[in-house]
Write a structure and sequence with these properties.
The chain has helices at 48-58, 77-80, 83-89, 180-183, 188-194, 198-208, 228-237; strands spanning 2-8, 11-16, 31-36, 39-43, 67-71, 93-97, 117-120, 125-129, 132-138, 148-152, 157-159, 215-217, 224-225. The chain is globular and about 55 Å long. Helices cover 20% and strands 23% of the residues. The strands form 2 sheets. Strands 1-2-3-4-5-6-7 form a 7-stranded mixed beta sheet, covered by helices on one side. It is α/β, with parallel strands linked by helices.
Length: 271
């Protein structure tokens, strides 16, 4: 089921939080659809499990032939594993960092991406959509080397990929968060492990504070709204994470035998 983040007569932003079955083996992930004057963009469409519902919902707003873009914050499987099906079913172009431009063909049949990938330089840019546009903001190393966030100037929603993530169910992710302090325990472990350094977070926050933001919406977990947005900026600017927390103790020759019978192990997040 889609959640309406914004609507006016010509512009719609939808979020999907529960298209992937939560069976313990997959991470909860959000997908997004932006429509402006009968033209659309799918942001971080996810894997094959999300494809059918996204395509069906988008067809209520425009024919599949009016899907302009598949916009990917980076190239992880939970972002664009369904790419082959989108390129088969629609004329959409893939918009992604130039760093990943030559990697994404691995998600598709041979030749499928030929002439259909818009590689974005590190500086980002402004992408026309219908009679509006989508702003591609540099977000490199949060957590991917080539990474972008997406700002919709009509709805004033900032889509932040893996920044702002919280670990929760799809049902919980439907409700925007305003009490940031209570929300931090659901975010802290992820950000300490997946964000590369405090330096990057501070650079990003300085840039993002210049935007007028109605919602800050990550690819996993709940949107941040109201007072939670400036509180998030304050928190992220001071967070020690990634390489800030690593030292020689993390780079030792391994001594632990891996038991192949243990198939459901999970990587440990940094404390």
């Amino acid at each position: 089921m889609s959640i309406e983040l914004y609507r006016d007569p010509n512009h719609v932003c939808l979020m999907f939080t529960d298209l992937v079955e939560e069976d313990g083996d997959t991470v909860q992930a959000n997908q997004f659809l932006i429509v402006d004057h009968d033209h659309g963009a799918i942001i971080d469409p996810g894997g094959n499990l999300a494809f059918n519902e996204l395509l069906l919902t988008s067809s209520r707003f425009f024919t599949p032939q009016h899907l302009s873009y598949i916009v990917a914050s980076h190239a992880d499987p939970d972002i664009i594993a369904s790419l082959d099906r989108w390129l088969t079913s629609t004329p959409a172009q893939l918009v992604i960092s130039r760093i990943w431009e030559r990697f994404v063909p691995h998600f598709t049949k041979a030749g499928k991406t030929q002439g259909r990938v818009i590689g974005v330089s590190d500086a980002g840019g402004i992408l026309p959509l219908g009679k509006s546009e989508l702003h591609l903001l540099p977000a490199h190393f949060m957590h991917s080397e080539g990474n972008f966030h997406f700002y919709d100037p009509i709805s004033k929603i900032l889509f932040t990929g893996d920044l702002g993530v919280s670990m929760m169910s799809g049902e919980q992710a439907k409700k925007p968060v305003t009490d940031f302090k209570a929300h931090v325990p659901l975010m802290e472990g992820f950000h300490r492990r997946y964000m590369v350094s405090n330096k990057i977070l501070r650079l990003w926050a300085t840039m993002a504070r210049k935007l007028e933001i109605s919602l800050l919406v990550p690819q996993h977990g709940a949107p941040l709204a109201g007072p939670a947005i400036p509180a998030f900026f304050d928190w992220i600017e001071n967070l020690q994470c990634g390489v800030d927390l690593f030292d020689e103790r993390m780079y030792q020759l391994p001594r632990t035998l891996i038991d192949p019978r243990l198939t459901n192990s999970r990587p440990a997040a940094l404390a």
